[in-house]
């Protein structure tokens, strides 16, 4: 194997294969970010006199070409190379000779992989935020469109009170807004540059960490080098919590859909074309789409726990254990993105049933309405409660009034505009513009 750390003795091939693990496959996702980190690092080295102007003028065009290829998905890690960090340095050395060997001054693969993961996660969070907004908008539209269509609300899965499809769709939209508030917190923890912490204790090279922070479009740096290294695992877990929050919302929505789509409820219906069939039962039109959304969401909710277990009880300082986080962390982004796409598609198409509350099985759902009506007539609530309870027990209960809910967040006053404003506030707090401006100038010739 071709190793950066070759010291002249052979390493056991079995040990090499085991320790590299799935890095060759997973690190490909980090390649564009490893190259961006390298562009920032060599630019900084030149500014500190650790590379000459001529060195930089040879390195930058080569790195930018590599970046374009990697961004187009054309970066490969050779079978005899350990990881993306080694491949980038070896490719440069192949092209530029000894100059390629100078770029690792003042850095380690430990801060390199940390910065790669933060740049990767930052790009992927931006993508996910966009997809959450698409689902949010659909849920809000459906909420407005169905605001006058009543459905029963449940507690303990027992008929409870009148609800509405407006309230139901809108609840999940509001939940997504809060999920993005958590995502913003995770974004901030991730928005700090660990580059320059080297192996986890800094370097005697006169690095300018502020410069690489600006060049890479980070909001700030992780100051303490030991802490920067401790971020490995902590940052991924924080982001995974944010993803788990979104997955919690979408998984619950999927479960509601499975339940409400059942013939015994009949509240919603998936158009036939969105259902799947059975190989034996000719009548089946199954909501597999919601079942798979649910199980993906459940799996995603386990990821913070996976990371917690991989990193549990590790002291400060780098350990190879951290490599395994990538196996659960890197695939998480597309798993949730795919779920969000299909959930948006399904929720746009789901059909809702009208006149549900005319069904006598939901008669008792109006018990509180009737008690409140009696209260308005001057009956104390406890007496009204008792009178309605007696009527329900002897079968004579009929609700005589009409539904009139007016307070914020009730059937008659959904506050969707205020929820949308909250969402807008959260979305506009993500500094996506700062990031793209920095990266554009980093890669332009
Ligand atoms: N593949 C390693 C990881 O993901 C890269 C860092 C290697 N550092 C080391 N000291 N062996 O953690």
Mind explaining what this structure looks like?
It is a single chain. With 445 residues, the chain is mostly helical. It has two domains: 13-102, Fumarase/aspartase (N-terminal domain) (Fumarase C, Chain B, domain 1, Orthogonal Bundle); 120-205 and 222-358 and 415-438, Fumarase/aspartase (Central domain) (Fumarase C, Chain A, domain 2). It is built from 16 helices and six strands. The chain has a two-stranded antiparallel sheet with strand order 1-2. Strand 1 (150-155) and strand 2 (158-164) form a beta hairpin. The longest helix has 37 residues, at 109-145. The two termini are 34 Å apart. The protein binds arginine. The site of arginine has 10 residues, from helix 6.
Question: Could you write a compact summary of the structure shown?
Answer:
With 445 residues, the protein is mainly α.
CATH top-level class of the largest domain? Mainly Alpha
Present as ligands are: arginine
The CATH topology of the largest domain comes to Fumarase C, Chain A, domain 2
- Strand proportion: under 5%
Largest sheet: 2 strands, antiparallel
H/E series: HHHHHHEEHEHEHEHHHEHHHH
- List unreliable stretches of 5+ residues: none
Helix content class? 55-70%
Q: Give the helix tally.
A: 16
Q: How is the largest sheet built, in terms of strand order?
A: 1-2
Total number of beta strands: 6
- Overall shape: it is elongated
Mean pLDDT: 96
The N- to C-terminal Cα distance equals: 34 Å
- The total domain count is 2
The CATH superfamily of the largest domain is known as: Fumarase/aspartase (Central domain)
* SS-derived structural category: mainly alpha
The CATH architecture of the largest domain would be Up-down Bundle
């Amino acid at each position: 194997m071709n190793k950066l750390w070759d010291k002249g003795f052979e390493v056991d091939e079995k040990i090499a294969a085991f320790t590299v693990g799935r890095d060759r496959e997973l690190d490909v996702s980090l390649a564009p970010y490893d190259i961006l980190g390298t562009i920032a690092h060599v630019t900084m080295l030149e500014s500190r006199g650790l590379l000459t102007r001529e060195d930089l003028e040879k390195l930058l065009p080569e790195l930018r070409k590599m970046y374009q290829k990697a961004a187009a998905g054309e970066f490969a890690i050779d079978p005899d190379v350990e990881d993306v960090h080694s491949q980038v340095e070896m490719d440069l050395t192949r092209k530029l000779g000894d100059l390629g060997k100078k770029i690792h001054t003042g850095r380690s693969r430990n801060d390199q992989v940390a910065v790669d993961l933060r740049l990767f996660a930052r790009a992927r969070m931006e993508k996910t935020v966009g997809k959450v907004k698409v689902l949010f908008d659909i849920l809000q539209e459906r909420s407005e469109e169905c605001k006058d269509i009543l459905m029963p609300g449940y507690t303990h899965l027992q008929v409870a009170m009148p609800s509405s499809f407006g309230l139901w769709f809108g609840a999940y939209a509001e939940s997504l807004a809060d999920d993005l508030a958590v995502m913003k917190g995770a974004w901030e923890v991730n928005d700090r540059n660990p580059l320059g912490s080297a192996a986890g204790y800094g370097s005697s090279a006169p690095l300018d960490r502020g410069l690489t922070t600006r060049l890479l479009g980070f909001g700030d740096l992780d100051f303490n080098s030991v802490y920067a290294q401790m971020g490995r695992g902590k940052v991924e877990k924080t982001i995974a919590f944010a993803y788990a929050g979104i997955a919690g919302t979408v998984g619950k929505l999927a479960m509601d859909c499975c339940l409400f789509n059942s013939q015994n409820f009949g509240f919603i219906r998936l158009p036939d074309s969105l259902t799947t069939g059975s190989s034996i039962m000719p009548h089946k039109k199954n909501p597999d789409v919601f079942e798979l959304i649910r199980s993906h969401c459940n799996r995603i909710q386990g990821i913070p726990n996976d990371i917690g277990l991989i990193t549990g009880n590790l002291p400060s300082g780098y350990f190879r254990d951290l490599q395994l986080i990538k196996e659960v962390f890197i695939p998480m982004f597309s798993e949730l993105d795919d779920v969000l796409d299909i959930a948006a598609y399904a929720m746009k198409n789901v059909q809702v049933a009208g006149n549900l509350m005319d069904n006598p099985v939901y008669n008792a759902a109006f018990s509180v309405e009737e008690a409140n009506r009696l209260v308005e007539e001057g009956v104390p609530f406890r007496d009204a409660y008792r009178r309605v309870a007696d009527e329900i027990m002897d079968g004579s209960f009929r609700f005589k009034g009409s539904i009139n809910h007016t307070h914020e967040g009730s059937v008659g006053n959904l506050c969707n505009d205020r929820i949308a404003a909250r969402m807008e506030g959260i979305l506009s707090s993500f500094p996506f513009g700062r990031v793209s401006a920095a990266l554009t100038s980093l890669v332009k010739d």
